[in-house]
Amino acid sequence: MTAIILQKKVVNDTSLLLKTISEKGLLQYFKIPGILKSQKRSSMLLSAGNIWNFTTNNNIKKTIIPREFNLVQSPFDKEVKYDELKQIAELLKIFDFFFSNLELPSLYKKLYSLLEKWPVLNLDERNNKINRFYLFFLQEMGLFNFSDLCQKCKKPLNENDYYFLAEGTLCETCGKSNIVLDKNYFSYGWVSTCYYDKSINVIDKYNNLSRANRNLICNFLSESI
Length: 225
Prior knowledge:
By secondary structure, the chain is of the alpha+beta class. It has helices at 82-102, 106-117, 123-140, 172-181, 188-196, 200-224; strands at residues 2-11, 15-22, 27-32, 51-55, 63-64, 68-73, 162-164, 168-170, 185-187.
């Protein structure tokens, strides 16, 4: 069984409990006894974000002790950098949040594909992939209605226009009255950059907004779910 590690937790001082999503798109826990005192294997490779193949007996339980386990893919370079750890942690945190509410088998394939490409992406590209992941989840939940036209007057939009989580795209004129009542909005420029996966020099322009906008999405969803 191939699975992506979402979280790891130390149990009984020497063992690890791994929370994973399996290739079937299901939540699965694995317990690795004694791994923290092992001289043969490094527990670092069992960190969140790594992809492993677990050999198990046929009887599937909530928590399984695998007979054997082998690393399939790691998103980390040999020298793990702090920025990489931060981005992977955020990606998996939001994935875990959405997965708990959606439980879509297709999410495994999407996450696997992204982690597989992760080592060849630079920091800005990774940042934009995380942004796109947020928008993907919103779309899956029926909360993302993207258009290049204003939803009210049908005017083509530019980067200074708005995207409201509740109403979708609005031009600057139609959106002005909404800003007073609804704080859950982004610049259309940021949303379109993420949605269309635009060139890196355009992404860089909006990087400072990404953290605040992702927090806004999480807060919006926490109130909506």
